[in-house]
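Quick one: structure for this chain?
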Amino acid sequence: EEWIGIAVHNGDPMADADYDSWMADQISGYPSGLVNRVEDINPSSAGLEAAFEEEFQKFGVAGIEVMPLINEDDEVEIRIEFGFAVDHDDDVRVAVVLVEDGLTGSGQEWAQANYYSGGGSGALSGAGVDWHTAGSYVSGLTFNDVAREQITDVEGDDDIIGAPFDEGDIERAVMDKFDWNDDFDKENTRVVVMLIDDDSDEIINAAESHLKDLVLLEVNGVTYYIIDGDTFQLWDDDYLVPTGIAAPSNSVDVKVYPNPSNGLINVTLTEEAEVLLIDMMGKVVARANYVGNANGVQFNADYLSAGVY
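Got it. Here's what it folds into:
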C-alpha cells in the first residue's frame, strides 16, 4: 500500500531494453536500487530502507487515480486523474509503465547473476535465498514487479498535463489506446503511473492499478461503461462517473464555496436539481435536493476525510 516496486532487469528474458538503457545512466552497475529515482543504493545495505523512509515523509503534491480499461478486443485505454492538494508551479512529466508479477522460467538464461556470492559485495537475504552462501548464479526463482513495457518515454512525457496547477485542480489524461501484448499475463500485470518533477527528475508521487474489464453498452443514444461490473457514464469525453449522475447543463450556474473547506460546503444553483458530493473514486458521500429556495444546499464536511471532492 505504501511502496510500488519496479524491477529493471538486465541480461535475462525479463529485460526491457528501454528501461535497461535508461538505468545504465543512473547506477554504477547491477544490482542497485533507486527510491523515487534518487540516489544509487546497494540493496544489501540498510540505506535502501532508510532512503524509502525519508522519501515516504515527503509531501506527494497530488493524489493519483489510475483506471486501465481493457475491452473485449483486448484494446487498452489508460485513464488517469490527478487531484492537486496544493498550488504547484513547476513543470511535471508523467511516466507510465507495465509491471508484471509471477514470472519464472527454466534454462540458463533465467538464472540470476549473484554478485553477493561469497560476501564480497555484502550480505543479502531474500526470495528464500541466502545470497552470500549461494552460487554465482541462482535458478528457480519467481519474479515480481518486473518492468515489462513503457507506455510513455522512460523519463516521462511532458505533454500529458501542464503546470501551473492550483490547489483543488483536477487534471485528467486519457492515454492513446494500444493492443494488449499476449506475452503478458493480464491477471498479474499492473499499470504504474509516476508524476515526475521536470527539473529534479524525482518522482513526486505514484499510483498503480490492475487492468479493469470494460464493456461498452449503448442504450437510447447513451453510451455506458461497464467496468468490472459497475456502470459509469462519460462526462465531457474524459470523466467517468457512476450511472445516474448527470452533468449540469451549460445553462445552470453553480457556485461552491468556500473552496477549499474544512467545515460547511455551500452550493447555490439557478435551477432545481439533485446535488451530489463525490469523492475521487466516484463514490457519492452526500446528496441533497435543491428545490429553488434562496439558501441553496449546504453540506457538513466535518466528517469527511481530507481530500479532493
